[in-house]
């Protein structure tokens, strides 16, 4: 076996979820290691928001996030585990204090909340700095 | 956290599979070979994504099977550095907090990467974050197994695991058993990281 490109593309949790579900639902009975890993991975993904995401909600959301000048991995994280508090945004976006204003952070949160409404509602100004 | 890896393989299809469609036979063989396995410096293989090209099959004298060169893409679990993931605490020990994602277990958050100050509680077998309440007192936040935890991926280690050698060599045998092919190191020493319940008031 030969590895041509060990990282050809990144996949969002949603894409993996859909693909694994197809494998699970195919007529052929899966066996062995493939069955184990699809079962375990699906069980993990079912607990993530990817279960209720759709193709259109993700593309729409990414379009609206374009203006914030985020890089690919940051957007991937926002989609995989949509944050609901400014604190979580701070974790996912590097140097977010310098790159984004407070209004912009709120705007990102409301965009995410609009497209993925199943999340906990955005808490306003509830940020707590424990330090 | 998931990526696509492009690979090439010469797949051997045994005669009993000659009645099934070649694509399906190849897909089955690739999944049998790779699913739930760690490939060195690639990651944990999950499932075949697609086959990009299949060359002509050939046969080798003395072997009834056919051999086919296939190029394919595979779904691989390999989080990037600094990625934020959510998992469950599997157990706590002196070495730190062991986290599992369900399909991947080898994640360790070492004591130095826990919230400061944290200490290990021997009787409860759990790490405790001695959260400073600000008024001189402190509040003990336990990290019990089964709790959901958010952490940052800070390191990855691939170890080459060779097949077990001859059983005569006792010492090396033990070493092999402890080897983990792919493990991740995490950290939770930032505000917002750690048990989800710590932050959602």
UniProtKB/TrEMBL annotation, chain A:
Subunit and interaction comment: Component of the RNA polymerase III complex consisting of 17 subunits: a ten-subunit horseshoe-shaped catalytic core composed of POLR3A/RPC1, POLR3B/RPC2, POLR1C/RPAC1, POLR1D/RPAC2, POLR3K/RPC10, POLR2E/RPABC1, POLR2F/RPABC2, POLR2H/RPABC3, POLR2K/RPABC4 and POLR2L/RPABC5; a mobile stalk composed of two subunits POLR3H/RPC8 and CRCP/RPC9, protruding from the core and functioning primarily in transcription initiation; and additional subunits homologous to general transcription factors of the RNA polymerase II machinery, POLR3C/RPC3-POLR3F/RPC6-POLR3G/RPC7 heterotrimer required for transcription initiation and POLR3D/RPC4-POLR3E/RPC5 heterodimer involved in both transcription initiation and termination.
Source species: Rhynchophorus ferrugineus
What does the protein in this record do?
DNA-dependent RNA polymerase catalyzes the transcription of DNA into RNA using the four ribonucleoside triphosphates as substrates. Specific peripheric component of RNA polymerase III (Pol III) which synthesizes small non-coding RNAs including 5S rRNA, snRNAs, tRNAs and miRNAs from at least 500 distinct genomic loci. With POLR3H/RPC8 forms a mobile stalk that protrudes from Pol III core and functions primarily in transcription initiation. Pol III plays a key role in sensing and limiting infection by intracellular bacteria and DNA viruses. Accessory protein for the calcitonin gene-related peptide (CGRP) receptor. It modulates CGRP responsiveness in a variety of tissues.
**Where located?**
Cell membrane; Nucleus
* Alphabetical list of InterPro entries matching this protein: HRDC-like_sf (IPR010997), RNA_pol_Rpb4/RPC9_core (IPR006590), Rpb4/RPC9 (IPR005574), Rpb4/RPC9_sf (IPR038324), RPC9 (IPR038846)
The family annotation for this protein states: Belongs to the eukaryotic RPC9 RNA polymerase subunit family.
- Enumerate the spans annotated as RNA polymerase Rpb4/RPC9 core domain: 1-119
Report the record's Gene Ontology biological process terms.
transcription initiation at RNA polymerase III promoter
Its transmembrane ranges are none
Kindly give the membrane topology term recorded for this protein: Peripheral membrane protein
Primary residence: membrane
Spell out the protein name for this chain.
Answer: DNA-directed RNA polymerase III subunit RPC9
Alphabetically sorted, this entry's keywords are:
Cell membrane, DNA-directed RNA polymerase, Membrane, Nucleus, Transcription
Automatic annotation (TrEMBL), chain B:
- Where does the RNA polymerase Rpb7-like N-terminal domain start and stop, copy by copy? 12-64
Q: Which Pfam families does the annotation name?
A: RNA_pol_Rbc25 (PF08292), SHS2_Rpb7-N (PF03876)
Keywords in alphabetical order, please: Antiviral defense, DNA-directed RNA polymerase, Immunity, Innate immunity, Nucleus, Transcription
Q: Which Gene3D superfamilies match?
A: Nucleic acid-binding proteins, RNA polymerase Rpb7-like, N-terminal domain
Q: Which residues form the RNA polymerase III subunit Rpc25 domain?
A: 83-199
Establish whether keyword Transcription is in the entry: yes
Q: Which one GO biological process term can you cite for this protein?
A: transcription initiation at RNA polymerase III promoter
Which InterPro entries does this one have? Answer: NA-bd_OB-fold, RNA_pol_III_Rbc25, RNA_pol_Rpb7-like_N_sf, Rpb7-like, Rpb7-like_N
Give the highest taxon in the source lineage. Answer: Eukaryota
* Keyword GTP-binding part of the UniProt annotation: no
Its annotated compartments are:
Nucleus
User: What's a single GO CC term here?
Assistant: RNA polymerase III complex
Q: How does it assemble?
A: Component of the RNA polymerase III complex consisting of 17 subunits: a ten-subunit horseshoe-shaped catalytic core composed of POLR3A/RPC1, POLR3B/RPC2, POLR1C/RPAC1, POLR1D/RPAC2, POLR3K/RPC10, POLR2E/RPABC1, POLR2F/RPABC2, POLR2H/RPABC3, POLR2K/RPABC4 and POLR2L/RPABC5; a mobile stalk composed of two subunits POLR3H/RPC8 and CRCP/RPC9, protruding from the core and functioning primarily in transcription initiation; and additional subunits homologous to general transcription factors of the RNA polymerase II machinery, POLR3C/RPC3-POLR3F/RPC6-POLR3G/RPC7 heterotrimer required for transcription initiation and POLR3D/RPC4-POLR3E/RPC5 heterodimer involved in both transcription initiation and termination.
Task of the protein: DNA-dependent RNA polymerase catalyzes the transcription of DNA into RNA using the four ribonucleoside triphosphates as substrates. Specific peripheric component of RNA polymerase III (Pol III) which synthesizes small non-coding RNAs including 5S rRNA, snRNAs, tRNAs and miRNAs from at least 500 distinct genomic loci. With CRCP/RPC9 forms a mobile stalk that protrudes from Pol III core and functions primarily in transcription initiation. Pol III plays a key role in sensing and limiting infection by intracellular bacteria and DNA viruses.
Q: Which family does it belong to?
A: Belongs to the eukaryotic RPB7/RPC8 RNA polymerase subunit family.
Q: What is this protein called?
A: DNA-directed RNA polymerase III subunit RPC8
Source taxonomy lineage?
Eukaryota, Metazoa, Ecdysozoa, Arthropoda, Hexapoda
């Amino acid at each position: 076996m030969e590895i041509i490109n060990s990282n050809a593309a990144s996949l969002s949790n949603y894409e993996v979820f859909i693909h694994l579900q197809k494998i699970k639902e195919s007529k052929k009975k899966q066996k062995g290691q493939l069955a184990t890993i699809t079962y375990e991975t699906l069980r993990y993904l079912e607990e993530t928001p990817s279960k209720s995401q759709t193709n259109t909600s993700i593309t729409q959301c990414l379009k609206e996030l374009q203006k914030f000048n985020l890089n690919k991995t940051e957007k991937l994280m926002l989609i995989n585990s949509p944050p609901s508090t400014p604190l979580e945004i701070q974790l996912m976006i590097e140097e977010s204090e310098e790159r984004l204003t407070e209004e912009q952070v709120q705007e990102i949160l409301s965009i995410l909340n609009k497209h993925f409404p199943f999340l906990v509602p955005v808490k306003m100004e509830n940020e707590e700095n424990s330090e | 956290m998931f990526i696509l890896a492009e690979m090439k393989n010469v797949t051997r299809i045994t005669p009993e599979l000659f009645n099934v469609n070649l694509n399906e036979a190849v897909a089955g063989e690739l999944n049998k070979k790779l699913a739930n396995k760690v490939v060195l410096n690639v990651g944990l293989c999950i499932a075949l994504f697609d086959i990009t090209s299949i060359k002509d099959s050939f046969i080798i004298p003395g072997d009834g099977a056919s051999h086919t060169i296939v190029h394919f893409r595979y779904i691989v679990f390999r989080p990037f550095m600094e990625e934020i993931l959510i998992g469950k605490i599997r157990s706590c020990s002196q070495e730190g907090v062991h986290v599992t994602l369900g399909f991947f277990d080898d994640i360790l958050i070492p004591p130095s990467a826990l919230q400061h100050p944290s200490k290990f509680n021997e009787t409860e077998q759990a790490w405790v974050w001695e959260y400073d309440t600000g008024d001189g007192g402190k509040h003990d936040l336990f990290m019990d197994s089964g709790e959901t935890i958010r952490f940052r991926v800070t390191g990855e280690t691939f170890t080459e695991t060779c097949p077990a050698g001859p059983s005569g060599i006792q010492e090396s045998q033990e070493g092999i058993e402890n080897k983990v092919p792919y493990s991740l190191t995490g950290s939770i020493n930032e505000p917002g990281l750690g048990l989800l319940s710590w932050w959602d008031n």
